Amino acid sequence: MSACVVSRGRHAEQERLGAEPPFAGVSAGIHGYLAGRKAARSMWRWGRAWRGLWGVALKPPLPSPGLGLAGRRAAHASGSPRPVPLSYKLLDSADSRPALVFLHGLFGSKTNFQTIGRSLQQQTGRRVLIVDARNHGESPHSPDSSYEAMSADMEALLPQLGLAPCVLIGHSMGGKTAMTLALQKPELVERLISVDISPLPNTVVLDFPSYLEAMKAVQIPEELSLSQARKVADQQLSPVIQDSTIRQFLLTNLVESSTGQFEWRVNIEALIQQMDKILDFPQLQKSYPGPTLFLSGAKSTFIQPSHYSEIKRLFPQAQILSIPGAGHWIHADQPQDFMTNVKRFLA
User: 171 an active-site residue?
Assistant: First the structure.
């Protein structure tokens, strides 16, 4: 997995970074939600699982399933996306009902749903899986950030873990990945929840290119602690990214590697190249027949009334609910309302 090394001083040679753009309208509620987030300090070792926070099984990326040389050549020849082995955390239980699987949004990681996932596991008894998308968190980097590719990653992972079919819950970019998988492989998705995103191109105006360029330009002096490095980066980002909440969210992606270098662990270059695809949605004709819930933040404009006809075309059983007091980050702004609606949808 490549990572973007942040320049340390004027003479340091800056390597190609890896990161993503934030969403406008991220509300102040995300501060408390992200406060417990821990930055990864070292690379996962393949094939090793260890016991971490709450005694939960933490897993490195799994080897790609069943894709030998012949399979890779066939996938390449057919134009199908090649899955990458995703990093994940499984909150296990003996419950045999479909697991809850959470997919985070742009610039996020599996830690975004850590608290929510743990609470829902305790309240429902179900297994819970939270996943790092490709080019995010501790999952591998790839030049392909299309929804077809991210869907292929989940199509490979869920059967490996014995979690198909599942209840698939995706926020923003993760919601579009979840919708793509449900439309392409409905047998893997028992029911679907899309969190503040619709199956249409984003119409919210976001200044992604300037955010990404600002992140690439960050320079950090030698011999700083991680907290000091993030303060320096915050100062350098502030002229371009004036919303402090967005900056703090982005800065959770600045980590210190095992070699002592500071890195952006999201793949900036791939996201710059693939941003049009991330803001768009695949042209898919088949509908998903299963139960579907769209949760919309009352303060957000990501799901609009003009989207309802396309939502109903692709997801005939869709319910669309607005969450009062919530912006784009519904699970951070109104976590209790979010969990109540998830549990009601499962009943």
Answer: no
